[in-house]
Design brief:
The complex is a heterodimer of chains A (about 525) and B (about 350). By secondary structure, chain A is an alpha/beta fold. Chain A has 4 domains: about 1-90 and about 170-245, P-loop containing nucleotide triphosphate hydrolases (Rossmann fold, 3-Layer(aba) Sandwich); about 100-165; about 265-345 and about 430-440 and about 460-515, Rossmann fold (3-Layer(aba) Sandwich), CATH 3.40.50.300; about 350-425, no CATH class. In chain A, the strands form 6 sheets. In chain A, strands 6-9-10-3-11-12 form a 6-stranded mixed sheet, sandwiched between helices. A 6-stranded mixed sheet of chain A has the order 18-21-22-15-23-24, sandwiched between helices. In chain A, strands 2-1-4-5 form a 4-stranded antiparallel sheet, with helices on one face. In chain A, α14 (about 415-425) packs parallel to α15 (about 445-460). Chain B is mostly helical and about 350 residues long. Chain B has one domain: ABC transporter involved in vitamin B12 uptake, BtuC, CATH 1.10.3470. Chain B is about 70% helix and about 5% strand. Chain B has helices at about 1-15, 15-30, 40-65, 70-85, 105-125, 130-150, 180-200, 200-210, 215-220, 225-250, 260-270, 285-300, 305-345, and strands at about 90, 95-100, 175, 180. In chain B, the strands form 2 sheets. A two-stranded antiparallel ribbon of chain B has the order 1-2. Chain B has a two-stranded antiparallel ribbon with strand order 3-4. In chain B, α4 runs parallel beside α6 and α5 runs antiparallel to α10 (about 225-250). The relative contact order of chain B is 0.19. The chains are: A alpha/beta (about 525), B mainly alpha (about 350).
């Protein structure tokens, strides 16, 4: 099954026993890696496994402490990105490095400008080339368009285009390029990746989405704790092989017990005909209705932009323009503000941990108690003792790994940061927990923890609404799943009805009905 | 070993403003024998009280991630409002009477006017989404213009009041109690209240949360707009109090009083470790920062350094302080990352 990692004629770049030592830690430990010519070479591992470090070394952002890089027979070493680029190596970071305030052609030729005379810019050439490259990428975007106005998927294409400006591209490194793309955009990206490889360009591809790897990958290399675990041709393996190699043992997500008769449980939340108008016509949500039982985990599946996050925003009072009814324990709510909704027993775990979940300047403890501070107030003063003991309790209950709760929040790993955001919601003593992509950007071990937390609180009588775009995850964590597509509820599945096929089918249905030109 | 060294360095870095203050005091006491006398220090306290109080309000605003450029103008306006009420009373045209208020009433009305400017700042910033820099730049001109209009640019110079009108006693704020300037006592009281409010109350922590990550604060249920409006009101009230103290000390109210004082307030806050990016700052630090600025000004005056050189030196000190501040933050970020790597299994 495994392939030998040695240099050969079909290898574009060969890394031989690369180590990277940071003060106190060894991020990479004698890792060998092959980039095969004209292939999609997948690098996978949990967060902190060392894949980013390896990539950065190949791209010249960081330098190896030990080991050697070969391109063909030639031994190479890159002191910076420019040197790597001279060898035909380009990189697209997970966070796009674009200038949203500038036009497409300016972005593409930034720092690669062609001059006219001594100071003038040869914009005629820039625009002509931009058109040529964008057509090659099958995204004929007007070169004058401001990049900030483009969709994320289109912006991704601009990033790729930047790397194609020079003709000598040999290796393109892509760090989780699909994490913010819609399913259609992913397919377009894959098509373009195939075309690039057909031209002989090698791609190094990093992703957390295992299904994608099976679809697009040619070779896969698994890293764990800075060490090379295994390497194989994708045609020889399956998803469970990858998962097993990544986590080290045959670990899977905790499953929900399937033997509960939900019809006998009381309904905690009922949403009726929830609609949300779209700017410039149409609907972000179109008469969506559902019920949530006590102790139930209801999954909301759908593509990007299907209206999943919008449901949460309406319930939390962030979208005052919505129509329809939200009924909590038989009482129709008049939704005014998020503060009021939190008081009523709703808690939101937002999708973007860094931007919406954490206050980076505050310590771990204060991040946990932020939402529930007023519960510890006596007059205007805080009762610190009660606050402290509740913080300790939640840290213990959801197993947040902290040395000292007064440490800065950024001293925690991504998974533990996510647990803090969840803990903050739990500390408000909610009846209903709304989780938006709770496992995004955390490694498999932490994902399992997060799902166990969700199960734990569901068993304790909390009702949970969870949005996820990963099929495997939502299948195992949810008791029932509703599917949104284009703002319309297209399916409601429970028990054995939940299959990947039906979920995926339903997630496209909303686009077909009534929207054909 | 390495760890001990870093933590020692961090302690030094964190206490740097205080260390600088002590060094400055030593330097000036060597340079001028009279510097460490009670009289000089009391005078220093009197000066520092003014930017100290302004800087406390400014610290609140900066922690939320904002800025308040209007405080200097509010100082001027407050002096004019109070001065006008004492000297000329308030004439009600329609009734043909002129009302004179007692000093406590004058103080309250002046603070209300200050609070109004602060409320205006808060509303413009939160409800209309104007950047704090621009909003308070606008109200700075408005408040200054209002102050000028109040007397057509003239100075109110008879603030002693009149027994018959029952409005004497305004000079109290410029006087001394047991040798200590009343202004300095007010600074102490405001500093203690401001510190407790910031550290021990929900309101205080909400201020930190907003400055650290406004979006996360909002989604956590923090009433962002309300907190911000209160913070700008607090800053303007501090400025109004400074206006009252200044007018009382000078026994005169001039509409141009307080010009560029907002800059001293910002400088004191920044010297004290308040982050212009928001989310970080302490009242203690700000007070030390205000004293550093005060010691530099007074000390150099006593040593006969020209005012022009004073400005250059003040500028250098502020820039240096911020450079060290960046260095400290980088180091803290590195330590956090290190802790994160170490905790990894």
């Amino acid at each position: 099954m495994a392939v030998n990692i040695t240099n050969g004629p079909d290898v574009c770049l060969h890394a031989e026993k690369i180590s990277k030592i940071y003060p106190g830690t060894k991020a990479l430990d004698e890792v060998s890696f092959n980039v095969y010519k004209g292939k999609v070479n997948v690098l996978i591992g949990e967060n902190g496994a060392g894949k980013s470090t390896l990539m950065k070394i190949i791209a010249g952002i960081e330098q190896e402490s030990e080991g050697e890089l070969f391109m063909g027979e030639e031994k190479v070493h890159f002191d910076d990105v420019t040197e790597a680029r001279e060898h035909g190596i380009g990189i697209i970071h997970q966070e796009l490095n674009l200038f949203p305030n500038l036009a497409v052609y300016q972005n593409i030729f930034m720092a690669k400008e062609r001059k006219k005379g001594t100071v003038g810019l040869d914009n005629e050439y820039h625009i002509k080339e931009t058109k040529r490259i964008m057509e090659k990428l099958q995204h004929p975007i007007d070169p004058y368009t401001i990049v900030g106005d483009l969709r994320v998927g289109q912006q991704q294409m601009i990033e790729i285009a930047r790397n194609l400006v020079q003709d000598d591209l040999k290796i393109l490194i892509m760090d989780e390029p699909t994490s913010s793309l819609s399913e259609q955009e992913v397919q377009v990206l894959f098509k373009i990746m195939r075309e690039l490889t057909a031209e002989g360009i090698s791609i190094v591809y990093i992703s957390h989405r295992l299904e994608e790897i099976m679809q697009i990958g040619d070779y896969v290399t698994v890293l764990r704790d800075g060490k090379l675990v295994d390497s194989a041709a994708v045609k020889d393996i399956d998803i469970s092989w990858i998962v097993q190699k990544m986590v080290g043992k045959g670990k899977s997500y905790p499953k929900r017990a399937g033997n509960i008769d939900w019809s006998k449980r009381e309904t905690v939340l009922e949403v009726k005909d929830l609609s949300l108008p779209k700017k410039g016509g149409g609907w972000l949500l179109d008469k969506v209705s559902f019920q949530l039982k006590k102790g139930e985990i209801l999954g909301i599946y759908g593509l990007m932009g299907a209206g999943r996050t919008e449901i949460f925003e309406c319930i939390m009072g962030l979208r005052p323009e919505h129509t329809g009814e939200v009924i909590l324990n038989g009482e129709t709510l008049k939704i005014n503000s998020i503060t009021e909704q939190i008081d009523r027993g709703f808690a939101l775990i937002p999708e973007d941990r860094q931007r919406e979940g954490l206050v980076q300047t505050m310590d771990i403890g204060k991040n946990l108690s932020l939402s529930s501070l007023k519960n510890y107030a006596k007059g205007i003063f805080l009762k610190s003792n009660e606050e402290e003991s509740n913080i300790d309790k939640i840290i213990d209950e959801i197993h947040i790994k902290v040395a000292d709760k007064r440490l800065p929040i950024l001293s925690l790993s991504g998974g533990n940061q996510q647990k803090v955001v969840i803990g903050k919601g739990i500390m408000t003593n909610p009846k209903i927990l709304l989780l938006d992509e709770p496992s995004r950007g955390i490694d498999i071990g932490a994902k399992t923890d997060v799902f166990e937390i969700m199960n734990h609180f569901a068993d304790a009588g909390l009702s949970l609404l969870v949005v996820s775009s990963e099929l495997e995850e939502i299948k195992s964590i949810a008791d029932r799943i509703i599917v949104l597509s284009n703002g319309i509820k297209t399916a409601e599945l429970a028990g054995d009805e939940i299959t990947e096929d039906r979920l995926v089918m339903a997630s496209y249905e909303g686009h077909n009905s009534g929207k054909k030109n | 070993m390495f760890k001990d060294k870093t933590s020692l360095m961090m302690t030094l870095l964190k206490g740097r403003t205080l260390i600088v203050l002590v060094l400055l005091l030593i330097f000036f006491s060597v340079a001028n024998d009279n510097f460490l006398s009670t009289n000089t220090l009391l005078l220093l306290a009197k000066h520092v009280a003014l930017y100290g109080i302004l800087a406390i309000g400014m610290t609140y605003v900066i922690i939320t991630g904002g800025i308040d450029l209007s405080v200097g103008a509010v100082v001027g306006l407050a002096g004019m409002i109070a001065g006008g009420m004492i000297q000329n009373g308030v004439t009600l045209q329609f009734a043909g009477v002129t009302l004179y208020f007692s000093v406590p009433m004058v103080v309250i009305l002046t603070i209300v006017v200050g609070a109004f400017i602060g409320w205006l700042n808060g509303i413009i910033i939160t409800k209309f989404g104007v950047a704090p820099f621009i909003a308070t730049l606008g109200t700075m001109y408005i408040a200054r213009g209002w102050a000028m209009l109040h007397s057509n640019g003239a100075t109110y110079s008879s603030l002693a009041g009149n027994e018959a009108l029952g409005n004497t006693g305004f000079s109290f704020f410029g006087s001394r109690i047991a040798e200590i300037p009343v202004g300095a006592l007010i600074l102490v009281v405001i500093a203690i209240i401001a510190h407790i409010l910031l550290k021990k109350t929900v309101f205080g922590w909400h201020i930190f949360a907003i400055g650290g990550n406004e979006k996360a604060a909002k989604l956590s249920g923090v009433k962002v707009d309300k907190v911000k409006i209160l913070v700008y009101i607090f800053s303007a009230v501090c400025a109004a109090i400074v206006g009252l103290i200044t007018a009382s000390q000078l026994e005169a109210a001039h509409p141009a009083t307080g010009e560029t004082w907002e800059m001293n307030a910002i400088a004191a806050a920044v010297l004290g470790g308040t982050s212009m990016a928001g989310g970080i700052g302490t009242i203690g630090g700000t007070i030390v920062g205000a004293f550093v600025i005060g010691v530099i000004s007074d000390g150099m005056v006593m040593c006969g350094v020209s005012e022009f050189w004073q400005m250059i030196i003040k500028g250098l000190v502020i820039i240096l302080a911020v450079i060290i501040d960046q260095f400290q933050r980088n180091m803290e970020a590195k330590m956090a990352l290190q802790a994160r790597n170490e905790s990894k299994d």
